[in-house]
Amino acid sequence: MNLKLLFRIFFGFNAVFILGSIVSPEAMMESFGMDYTSESGIMLQFAILGQILFLVLTFQLPDWLGENLAKAGMTYTVLCLLPVGLNSYHALNDVLPVGPAFFVENTIWVAFAVLFYLYSKK
Length: 122
Prior knowledge:
Elements: H1 3-23, H2 25-31, H3 38-65, H4 70-92, H5 100-120
Helix pairs in contact: 1-2, 1-3, 1-5, 4-5
């Protein structure tokens, strides 16, 4: 596997999560122990838009940077760790429950962070 393929896989995972958020926001929020309301639905739309913007950049970066793609690898390592930090903060302060969704999501983010780190160092 190379860094370009890793960016494409990262794109695919995020696309699946975004699609799930669009198709069934209620189920997504419920998996994190939250209730879906009309107010949270509006905020969720903005969050999904931000994810889509990030997804477009992720898809384009390999073509834009070409052989210099490793320069973005370390940035993506940090970007992948940001949700882990925020999720952990929320869990430690009892804002979100520590359930299966917490562990699955954080495991995926950490795995991508490690892979981006390793492949950007090659």
